[in-house]
Amino acid sequence: MFLRLPMSLARFLNNGRLRILLLFLIVLLVLGICITYNNWPTDAELCFRDVTPAISKLEADEHIALEDVLLGHPKPRAGRSIFFHETSCHLFRKEERKQGKKKEYKLLQLTPRQACAIESAALHNPNFDIFVLFADPTYKVTKWRNGSLEQSPLIEAILGYNNVHLRSLNLWTYSEGTPIEAWFKDGQLFQSRYLFSHLSDFLRYLTLYRYGGLYLDMDVVVLRSMEDIPPNYTGAESHSSLAAGVMNFAAHGFGHEIAESCLRDFQQNFDGSDWGQNGPGVITRVAQKICGTQDISLMIEDSKRCLGFKVYSRGAFYAIPWRQWQDFFEPHKLETTMARAKDSYVIHVWNKHSSKLKIRYGTKSAYAQYAESNCPRALAASGEYF
């Protein structure tokens, strides 16, 4: 005996127009579900959402939130500021939000090597403002507890320099009014396989577009003043690629045009599955267009070719290539390493590879020698290991 369909359902299925309408409604429903899912903030995106309510008053056991760089004072001076970015985050998962949990503030922290980079920039460039921009809104700079001020010794060390300023930034408002605003708000960046690295790439070009000045990676040590170097420059990392760890663009004119070109290249060629595509890849491609060549040696040797954009040889900022990063930390390489970097403005210790290698205070290595001379306060505040 066959199952007989109700008369009304049988008539419906025999009506071609109604079947098409039903199919259309099902397609709309599926599309709506897909769009809602794709627009739902990812765990990584929630990392950088603002904490509410904002903390504004100072009371016992209350945190002091970092000022927003767009709102705080002093503001970056056009072309006269050095910028560092901190893009790690206090992960806040969708599941936690659904359960009603809230983000909590936590005491601002830096690693000894990050503090060293900041201090060395402040020490050698007293006429520049040093801005350290934190993308995670859950950081606080200090906390009062039982009438006393709590603060990391490393934070105290760098804030001993009057030209160091710690600020937060809101990724959404920070991108507003720039050529990359719509692309950023579309959310593609948060799908990246290397999110924190690519977020750092994104911010360095965006900051230089906003303010001009000098961008530095957090794993450098500045060895001498960079105040009098003419603007609009970067450095070669190899015979085939420029690097994005040290870049300077003027706030106006040609420098601002370079920064805008970098932002447009970033979004046009963004690839979340390629680590280097969106950092060194951007400045390399933009320089190739400016200089009219893909030959890095020609960029370095022929200053007129690049129309005033200076490409330094690797000795200026990357005297020790990343494959030899251990040379900074091996005592028997001390003399040869320092000889190779004797003319450098900056040394770059390749944190991606070296971060897990801790050195004991007093070790006779090139990095330890650089720290003693260029970031003595951070070194003293770091404890037994640096």
From TrEMBL:
It is a single-pass type II membrane protein. It comes from Drosophila willistoni (Fruit fly). One of its GO terms (cellular component) is Golgi membrane. Keywords: Glycosyltransferase, Golgi apparatus, Membrane, Transferase. One of its GO terms (biological process) is glucosylceramide biosynthetic process. It comes from the Eukaryota. SUPFAM superfamilies: Nucleotide-diphospho-sugar transferases. This is Alpha 1,4-glycosyltransferase domain-containing protein. It holds the Pfam family Gly_transf_sug. The keyword Membrane applies. It is found in: Golgi apparatus membrane. Gene3D superfamilies: 3.90.550.20. InterPro entries: A1-4-GlycosylTfrase_dom, Glycosyltransf_32, GlycoTrfase_DXD_sugar-bd_CS, Nucleotide-diphossugar_trans.
